[in-house]
Structures are given as structure tokens and as C-alpha cells.
Design goal:
By secondary structure, this protein is an alpha+beta fold. It has one domain (about 25-85). It contains two helices and five strands. It has helices at about 5-20, 85, and strands at about 25-30, 35-40, 55-65, 65-70, 75-80. The relative contact order is 0.17.
Amino acid sequence: MELTAEQKVVLAICAMNKHERKVEIRKEWRVLGLRIVFHWQSRNSFWGRFGGGWNWELGFAAGGRTVIINLLIASLRIERLCDDQDRR
């Protein structure tokens, strides 16, 4: 079976991800009906810290019940929980 160029690229990325060690910190807390998640990832990650090759990001995004604060090298996500999520 002959592979297309796109299939070869996907296989190469999968092989690279297997050999690259992913260094990551992810902490999660629940406080007063909020879920707070801190996420840091090494800049040596194949797709960068924030995905898509981005290693630096500063700013925030908000929508619905979630606010994401990007702190240059890490992100902090604050999410308001629904009543049914509080019980879990």
C-alpha cells in the first residue's frame, strides 16, 4: 500500500510526539462553585506551549461561564460550575 504525502506527514508527527518528552504541569482546584485550572507546558513541546507553535501569549478570553487568562508562559482558566457539576 502506498502512502500519500499527507499520510506520511501525519505519521512523522506521531513518531516525533512519541520521542519528544512532554513536560507539563496541570493543577486543578474547586473553590466556591468555581473550577480553577493552572496549566504550564514546556516551550520545547512540538506544538508550543499554547498549541499551533505559539510559545508566548498574553491576554484573556471570556465566554459563557469560562475566563482564560494567558500569562505569557502559562494559562489560568476559571470556570463557573453548574449545580450538577458541583455535586461531582
